[in-house]
Write a sequence for this structure.
């Protein structure tokens, strides 16, 4: 196969995919040529002797790479850890600011003594460049500043840092008034093959005349921000005593014990020494990464000035504010669900998941739940669907992009909505069950997921299962298992076949009515006793059951909420009790070929996603792996940049391992738990659950086996 030459010089970093002929995630390379199959032949940088000299790399797909400029590639090359390169790349706003640093810009860097402020003095070229293909490694010389805003004399005047060591950038025009920098003399450093790049000095001198005007703008902006209301979810900034600004999102508002006035619990954008993981005063108010939770009086907080207009204090959208999205080229190859090991890197963060737009949250949350990590629907999607239909191709492109890049822009979803056959899908708010029916019936052209048989021996199909029951039949905080059992017995419904995917809709109607204030998820749903004409075991002795009794369901002496079926002997004994003599047990259809003493196999399904609704807004929780803590929370409209006319929504995916801790408790403890004392996201799932999505345990096991083989 003859490659065709690519004339323009192109650098890239590998963002995903298996290690392939020299390339792995985090590697930096340069495109040499392109094959007829659409793959690229690339050179690999990062050798031990001279990292800037390329060597043969191998083949890489365009969907597995992120394009870089020469300057960006040289900055990333000085970062020795591949994971730290990718972590920096996942913060495009910070990385962009680092790439544009000027002399005397104020930065905050990671140091062995903590996070320290300093002035950028030089951009250092490290290594040697023997030919045009070679790259320098670029690092920053930083001069530390003490807490009194003077250059520190206690530390070496110049220290060398990589781009990954910089956690905050404060342009020189944003330095507060009264912060005077002493003139510094940049001494020579005794380092091998190190030269200074004079471009920073030139940029700094050109930017200096605008300093006074921009400082005035900064003061005007700060004065206007004091009147902007703050609430949970607001992006804020807090200025420390040393003059350094930290940024984050308000996760909690209230009055902690022993304090007066309103305080804010803020999840910071990066680690800060002395901060917690959401604990304060021995009490948990929310959950985040260690060293990210800051608690301060609300009066110390201001709206994040990076997204606000200087004159009005309102969010604005500039052309430069648009978050860069890696280029994407759709291929005919279907992308498998995101492996458990890659999900945290690929999905967690802001501008992750599916971007919401114009009442699309019901659709965004449903698609993310169904397709991000579960393999259950992959086989269904490939069976009868006509791949020539535009809407099917559009859906496949959305799923592939979500699994390959971890982000789907709003334009792709809007294109999909226009093909759903009704104009209301483009603009109006819908319920997930309505969209699910259209998705499977008209887009995927599949048979109903469920086949239900009633007492009248009639069979009907359905795509979701709606819980119907009387509130008095259940306890105060029921489990999904109890709701399923009671609903099926009350309506005398059975599943004709074992479903591969079961979508259970709770007894609530949008945000207007819900029967139960809290519902406890069942990680495993046992539907053995809900299958038609299937062997079942006696509730008492374990032998083959021949009778079923609906009136025994709420009996407090017989595990209330559990389905009760008995063999002939136990049925007579149980109903000999005076309180049960009025019951009317019904006979079961027992398969003739099944011996009465044969153990009955259990048929279970595993929870893989939950859709929730709060004040007309849908979000989802997804279990992306077999580990108990592998839970993520997705909100397609978690934040917004700009106003309603010209702005855009910022989707966010958050890790929530605390959900795994909570659900790992025994069922008895869960039924007695106080939801109001649970962490924020756990409480949200218990209070706002709308749909529970289950997949067959057999399918789940096969999925885990395939993923394990792929990781070997």
């Amino acid at each position: 196969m003859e490659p065709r030459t690519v004339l323009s010089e192109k650098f890239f970093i590998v963002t995903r995919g298996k290690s392939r002929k020299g390339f792995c995630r985090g590697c930096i390379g340069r495109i040499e040529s392109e094959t007829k199959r659409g793959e690229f032949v690339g050179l690999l940088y990062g050798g031990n002797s001279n990292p800037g000299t390329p060597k043969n790399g191998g083949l890489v797909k365009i969907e597995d790479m992120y394009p870089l400029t020469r300057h960006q590639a040289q900055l990333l090359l000085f970062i020795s850890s591949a994971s730290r390169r990718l972590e920096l790349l996942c913060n495009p706003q910070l990385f962009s600011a680092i790439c544009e640093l000027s002399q005397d810009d104020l930065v905050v860097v990671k140091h062995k003594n903590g996070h320290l402020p300093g002035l950028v003095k030089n951009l250092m070229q490290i290594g040697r460049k023997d030919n045009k293909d070679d790259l320098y490694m670029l690092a920053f010389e930083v001069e530390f500043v003490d807490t009194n805003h003077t250059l520190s004399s206690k530390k070496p005047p110049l220290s060398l840092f990589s781009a990954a060591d910089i956690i905050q950038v404060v342009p020189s025009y944003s330095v507060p008034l009264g912060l005077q920098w002493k003139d510094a003399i940049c001494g020579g450093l005794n380092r091998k093959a190190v030269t200074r790049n004079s471009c920073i000095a030139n940029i700094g001198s050109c930017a200096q005349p605008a300093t006074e005007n921009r400082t005035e703008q900064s003061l005007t902006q700060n004065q206007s921000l004091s009147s902007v209301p703050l609430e949970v979810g607001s992006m804020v900034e807090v200025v420390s005593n040393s003059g350094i600004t930290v940024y984050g999102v308000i996760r909690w508002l209230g009055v902690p014990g022993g304090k007066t006035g309103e305080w804010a619990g803020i999840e910071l954008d990066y680690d800060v020494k002395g901060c917690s993981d959401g604990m304060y005063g021995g009490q948990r108010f929310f959950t985040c990464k260690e060293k990210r939770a800051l608690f301060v009086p609300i009066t110390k907080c201001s709206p994040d000035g990076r997204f606000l207009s200087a004159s009005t204090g309102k969010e604005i959208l500039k052309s430069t504010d648009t978050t860069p999205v890696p280029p994407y080229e759709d291929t005919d190859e279907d992308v498998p669900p995101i492996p458990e090991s890659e999900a945290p890197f690929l999905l967690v963060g802001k501008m992750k998941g599916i971007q919401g737009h114009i009442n699309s949250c019901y659709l965004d949350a449903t698609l993310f739940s169904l397709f991000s990590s579960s393999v259950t629907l992959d086989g269904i999607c490939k069976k009868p669907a006509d791949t020539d239909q535009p809407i099917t191709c559009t859906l496949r492109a959305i799923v592939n992009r979500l699994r390959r890049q971890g982000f789907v822009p709003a334009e792709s979803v809007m294109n999909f909505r226009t093909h759903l056959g009704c104009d209301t899908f483009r603009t109006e708010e819908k319920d997930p069950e309505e969209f699910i029916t259209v998705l499977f019936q008209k887009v995927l052209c599949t048979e109903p997921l469920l086949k239900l048989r009633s007492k009248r021996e009639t069979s009907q199909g359905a795509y979701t299962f709606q819980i119907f029951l009387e509130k008095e039949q259940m306890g105060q905080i029921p489990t999904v298992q109890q709701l399923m059992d009671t609903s099926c017995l009350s309506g005398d419904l059975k599943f004709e076949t074992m479903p591969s995917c079961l979508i259970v809709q709770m007894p609530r109607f949008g945000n207007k009515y819900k029967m139960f204030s809290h519902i406890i998820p069942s990680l495993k749903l046992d539907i053995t006793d809900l299958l038609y004409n299937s062997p079942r075991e006696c509730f008492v002795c374990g032998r083959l059951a021949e009778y079923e009794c609906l009136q025994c369901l709420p009996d407090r002496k017989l595990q209330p909420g559990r389905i009760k079926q008995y063999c002939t002997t136990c049925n007579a004994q149980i109903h000999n009790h005076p309180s049960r003599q009025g019951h009317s047990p019904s006979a079961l259809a027992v398969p003739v070929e099944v011996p009465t003493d044969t153990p009955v196999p259990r048929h279970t399904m595993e929870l893989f996603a939950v859709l929730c609704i709060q004040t007309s807004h849908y979000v989802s929780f997804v279990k992306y792996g077999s580990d108990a803590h592998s839970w993520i929370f997705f909100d397609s409209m978690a934040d917004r940049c700009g106003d309603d006319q010209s702005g855009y929504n910022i989707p966010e995916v958050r890790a929530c391992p605390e959900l795994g801790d909570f659900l790992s408790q025994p069922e008895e403890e869960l039924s007695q738990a106080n939801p109001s004392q649970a962490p924020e996201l756990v409480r949200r799932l218990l209070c706002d659950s709308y749909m529970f999505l289950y997949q067959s345990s057999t399918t789940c096991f096969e999925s885990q086996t395939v993923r394990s083989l792929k990781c070997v």
About this structure: The radius of gyration is 30 Å. The first helix runs from residue 70 to 77. The chain has a mean pLDDT of 76. The chain has five domains: 10-89, 98-146+158-169, 234-303, 337-527+603-699, 535-599.
